[in-house]
């Protein structure tokens, strides 16, 4: 019969008996387990003898029962036996611990459901059919309440419009200012290099005016507003949902859309065109600086060319477009906010999704408007 | 015998496909304190939310003041809400405004009281919960126990006929918790309020409960008085009253 001692003398394989020695705890079990795994011919063993074990913790108990279960499995003679027949000679203290940590009464582990790739895709910002219906319902409610709120003052939050206009509008002016200026510089610098090759320097004015007015102004502003305000709308609503504040509002017969979304909707509708206008002006100003310093065009020549390039139609379409950007940002932010699931973790998820989705929406809307410009 | 103030008929509640409450029927009587009891996660909050129509029941109906709340028109529902106060599990005070404004919202929404009177009402309610000093603080500046009490003040600011409390004393020290029970008893005895309250605290149950609804794994195991509960012979319930916890 095989007889071997583990290197550290902590387990004894002898006479058909496995006999761990000393402490069985989280520190000693890893080594014991390796020694046990290294034993060949498990069929020769019929018992695990605990007479030399002084104390066990949960790891020790798991070890003992795993050994017992392996013995039962690999030895046909033990097939009808239970753990109690295989585990022998334990002191009261040790048996007591085994009772507490025993795996015998463990319920079966629930199956983990793996979500497939397409289901997970569904969890991203792309919506299923129910999501589309939800967002349409939400939009109609937002529009309804934002108009009704103009004369129904009950259920409003005092001073919230001004506060929101400050948060969404005034606070984003510096960053929009800075980024638009830089975009203006870059755009005109890049195009100046090309235009100079053809001696068409002065057309930098047309180029910068038209691109800031039609595309870069509204787009830059929308992306910044989506990142700043869209995300904060989503996280505010999601937090309110998670902390049951929305339920509390409903219990006071206050419509959460009326109370939370409408002030933001009004503020953003009011602020967005102003922000876009600022962005366009500052961007063109950046262009002037390049034109004057790099191309040597006089400011007045630039101005003359710019005025020729400006069109009322473009401006109106741009303001319309940016208002629609703004509405999309609020509605998408609210949508992901109201839709939050789970606790604090859900809030972060909702926020991220809302930013991704609203930038996506802004670009799609922009494509549609590009077609209008061309038409 | 009085007519029930709330009737729950064959209520089944689900989140998605998951059944949280199945086929619960119970009548709740006015001017009684009914305690909803059960291990955590058994659906007590869900039960309250279905009664209040914050969640739509998957099956069954709930009558409040005699009318089916689950299908009533919006304006009728608002009238019912006017007579109901709710203390949510986490307080659910609005975090962006201070305690005074939190309490003034229901008053402004449902009454046309002049602002001087509103202010007095709010201060009285805050004094009832011992929070007079916190009137100008934001919820984030209060401790958990203070937030619960402020939320209770908001729940009773309109003198509701029915008060719902979801674990009001969880996380409170025993003294505050006893004072809260005292207050709830007064609301019942002096103002004839009906109270429906979720709590695990044995001491509290002995102090205030007229009736007990015992939920376990989505089923209602028991409805009756504390004494009946102890002698019900239902293992889970007897065990709870013996040990004092689940
Ligand atoms: N919004 C939700 N979405 C999905 N499952 C939920 C939601 N809220 C609660 N549940 C689940 O419903 C069960 C009952 O929850 P709840 O009513 O909060 O229990 P209790 O208040 O008794 O602790 C729990 O298993 C919980 O996981
Ligand atoms: Mg709960």
3D structure, described in words:
The complex is a heterodimer of chains A (375) and B (246). Chain A has 14 helices and 7 strands. With 375 residues, chain A is mainly α. In chain A, strands 1-2-3-5-7 form a 5-stranded mixed β-sheet. A two-stranded parallel ribbon of chain A has the order 4-6. Chain B has a domain of 70 residues. Helices cover 38% and strands 24% of the residues of chain B. Chain B has 9 helices and 10 strands. In chain B, β9 and β10 form a beta hairpin. In chain B, α3 crosses α4 and α3 packs parallel to α5. Chains A and B meet through α10 of A and α2 and α3 of B. Magnesium ion binds next to α1 of chain B.
Shape of chain B: globular
Ligands, deduplicated: adenosine-5'-diphosphate, magnesium ion
Radius of gyration of chain B, in angstroms, nearest whole number: 18 Å
Q: β content of chain B, as a range?
A: 15-25%
Count of helices of chain B?
9
Mean pLDDT of chain A: 86
- Which structural category do the helix and sheet elements of chain B fall into? alpha/beta
- For this structure, the quaternary state is heterodimer
Per-chain topology:
The complex is a heterodimer of chains A (375) and B (246).
Chain A: E1 4-5, E2 11-14, E3 17-20, E4 22-24, H1 29-38, E5 47-49, E6 53-56, H2 58-74, H3 83-86, E7 87-88, H4 92-101, H5 117-123, H6 129-148, H7 160-168, H8 173-197, H9 204-242, H10 245-251, H11 256-293, H12 299-309, H13 312-338, H14 344-374
Parallel strand pairs in A: 3-5, 4-6, 5-7
Antiparallel strand pairs in A: 1-2, 2-3
Helix pairs in contact in A: 1-2, 6-11, 6-13, 7-11, 8-9, 8-11, 9-11, 9-12, 9-13, 9-14, 11-13, 13-14
Chain B: E1 6-15, E2 18-28, E3 33-37, H1 44-51, E4 59-64, E5 67-68, H2 74-82, E6 84-87, H3 99-110, H4 115-128, H5 144-155, E7 162-166, H6 174-191, E8 194-198, H7 202-208, E9 211-216, E10 219-224, H8 226-230, H9 235-243
Parallel strand pairs in B: 3-8, 3-9, 6-7, 7-8
Antiparallel strand pairs in B: 1-2, 1-4, 4-5, 9-10
Bound molecules: adenosine-5'-diphosphate and magnesium ion.
């Amino acid at each position: 019969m095989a007889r071997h001692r583990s290197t550290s003398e902590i387990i004894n394989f002898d006479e058909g008996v496995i006999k761990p020695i000393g402490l069985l705890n989280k520190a000693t079990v890893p080594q014991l387990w390796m020694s046990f795994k290294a034993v060949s011919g498990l069929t020769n063993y019929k018992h695990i003898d605990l007479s030399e074990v002084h104390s066990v913790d949960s790891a020790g108990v798991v070890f003992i029962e795993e050994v017992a279960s392996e013995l039962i499995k690999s030895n046909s003679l033990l097939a009808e036996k239970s753990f109690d027949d295989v585990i022998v000679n334990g002191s009261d203290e040790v048996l007591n611990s085994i009772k507490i940590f025993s795996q015998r009464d463990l319920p079966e582990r629930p199956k983990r459901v793996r979500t497939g790739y397409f289901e997970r895709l569904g969890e991203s910002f792309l919506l299923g059919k129910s999501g589309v219906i939800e967002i349409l319902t939400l939009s109609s409610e937002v529009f309804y309440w934002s108009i009704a709120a103009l004369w129904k003052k009950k259920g409003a939050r005092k001073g919230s419009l001004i506060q929101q206009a400050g948060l969404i509008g005034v606070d984003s002016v510096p960053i929009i200012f800075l980024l638009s200026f830089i975009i203006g510089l870059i755009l005109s610098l890049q195009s100046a290099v090309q235009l100079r090759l053809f001696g068409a320097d002065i057309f930098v004015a047309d180029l910068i005016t038209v691109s800031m007015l039609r595309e870069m102004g509204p787009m830059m502003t929308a992306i910044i507003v989506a990142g700043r305000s869209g995300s904060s709308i989503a996280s505010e609503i999601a937090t309110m949902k998670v902390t049951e504040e929305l339920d509390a509002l409903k219990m006071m017969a206050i419509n959460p859309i009326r109370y939370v979304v409408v002030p933001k909707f009004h503020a953003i509708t009011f602020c967005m065109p102003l922000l876009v206008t600022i962005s366009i002006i500052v961007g063109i100003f950046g262009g002037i600086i390049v034109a004057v310093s790099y191309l040597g065009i006089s400011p007045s020549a630039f101005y003359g060319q710019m005025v020729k390039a400006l069109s009322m139609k473009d401006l109106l379409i741009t303001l319309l477009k940016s208002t629609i950007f703004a509405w999309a940002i609020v509605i998408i932010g609210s949508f992901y906010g109201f839709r939050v699931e789970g606790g604090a973790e859900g809030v972060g998820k909702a926020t991220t999704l809302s930013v991704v989705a609203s930038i996506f929406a802004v670009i799609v809307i922009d494509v549609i408007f590009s077609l209008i410009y061309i038409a | 015998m009085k007519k029930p103030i709330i009737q729950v008929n064959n209520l089944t509640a689900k989140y998605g496909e998951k059944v949280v409450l199945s086929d619960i029927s119970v009548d709740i009587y006015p001017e009684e304190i009914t305690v909803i009891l059960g291990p955590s996660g058994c659906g007590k909050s869900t039960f309250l939310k279905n009664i209040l129509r914050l969640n739509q029941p998957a099956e069954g109906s709930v009558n409040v003041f005699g009318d089916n709340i689950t299908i009533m028109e919006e304006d009728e529902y608002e009238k019912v809400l006017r007579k109901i106060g709710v203390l949510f599990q986490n307080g659910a005070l609005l975090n962006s405004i201070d305690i005074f404004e939190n309490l003034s919202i229901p008053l402004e929404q449902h009454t046309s009281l002049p602002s001087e009177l509103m202010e007095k009402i709010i201060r009285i309610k805050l004094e009832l919960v011992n929070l007079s000093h916190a009137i100008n603080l934001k919820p984030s500046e209060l401790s958990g126990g203070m937030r619960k009490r402020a939320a209770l003040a908001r729940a009773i600011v309109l003198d509701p006929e029915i008060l719902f409390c979801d674990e009001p004393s969880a996380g409170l020290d025993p003294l505050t918790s006893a004072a809260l029970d005292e207050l709830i008893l007064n609301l019942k005895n002096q103002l004839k309020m009906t109270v429906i309250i979720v709590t695990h605290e044995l001491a509290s149950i002995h102090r205030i409960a007229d009736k007990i609804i015992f939920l376990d794994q989505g089923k209602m195991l028991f409805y009756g008085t504390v004494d009946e509960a102890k002698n019900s012979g239902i293992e889970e319930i007897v065990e709870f009253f013996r040990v004092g916890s689940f």
